[in-house]
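Example 3.
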Amino acid sequence: DGGITQSPKYLFRKEGQNVTLSCEQNLNHDAMYWYRQDPGQGLRLIYYSQIVNDFQKGDIAEGYSVSREKKESFPLTVTSAQKNPTAFYLCASSIRGRVDKNIQYFGAGTRLSVL
Amino acid sequence: GDSVTQMEGPVTLSEEAFLTINCTYTATGYPSLFWYVQYPGEGLQLLLKATKADDKGSNKGFEATYRKETTSFHLEKGSVQVSDSAVYFCALPLLTQGGSEKLVFGKGTKLTVNP
């Protein structure tokens, strides 16, 4: 079955530690996205990528980094510079970057907590 | 800038009640409009969409009509079920400075349907 797989489902970060969230898709989509979800704040865009080896900052990129070395993979690293990382992280993809024409498909999310 | 505003939740209804979740938007031109749904513990999935003014999107008994006169895209369902309990997000596409597009989401409205 085609879809988006995020792992792990739950992740705990210690003070000063970098952690990486995995996102893999087998939908052959060009565009991929990372969102952060906090209670009562909806979704906020962290980073997005329209094509391999290229990505752009979203609205809240500070303290995060990404890479897009393969079409099917878009990992997100939460660095120690992100002082409030506790949130639900969602990865999404779409066929192209034209969001008005191309539906975004979401993974099941990773819940990150700070120890 | 372009944005969406949803009614604040949470909304609690009894089974078979009528549902309305309000969504208004601010945008340049007439973008496509979307409703996404997030069931407990899952990622988001597209519920319905409308691509131009006066279009009606529908799916699973839910409907929303794109009304340019009132800049609204309210979500309605005539008879809700317990299985409709979820968080609902209104969204519209936004063209970024880099020329690509992203989705702007409302803050979400949590619906709980009691038997």
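Chain B touches chain A through 22 residues (CB under 8 Å). The CA atoms of residues 54 and 67 of chain B lie 6 Å apart.
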